[in-house]
Design a protein that fits this description.
Number of helices: 5
InterPro entries: SpoVIF
Largest sheet: none
Shape: globular
Radius of gyration: 13 Å
Distance between the termini: 35 Å
Protein name: Stage VI sporulation protein F
Structural class: mainly alpha
Number of domains: 1
């Protein structure tokens, strides 16, 4: 892949591509019916996005994801975090 593109993305977002790739890899085989796994994903996305997620919002997101874990991706979690703010 184009390293210049990754550098531009890192510069604009402040998130290293290594972190994004590591998160994406961890999502591939994650059990999104498991509350502990889901909370970990939410916390990782929150950290990468540099946004705090209040416990009440985290609980709402966890319950939503556990109900329909088969439709989870990074964008869905990010949208949930941004929507509830």
């Amino acid at each position: 892949m184009d390293n210049g593109l990754f550098k531009n993305i890192e510069k604009k977002t402040g998130v290293s591509m290594r972190d994004v790739i590591d998160l994406a890899n961890s999502l591939q085989h994650a059990n999104f019916k498991d509350e502990k796994t889901v909370r970990g994903v939410i916390q990782n996305v929150s950290r990468l996005a540099n946004k705090s997620v209040p416990k009440e919002l985290e609980n709402q997101i966890v319950q939503t994801i556990i109900k329909d874990g088969s439709k989870l991706d990074i964008q869905t979690i990010t949208d949930m975090i941004n929507k509830k703010r």
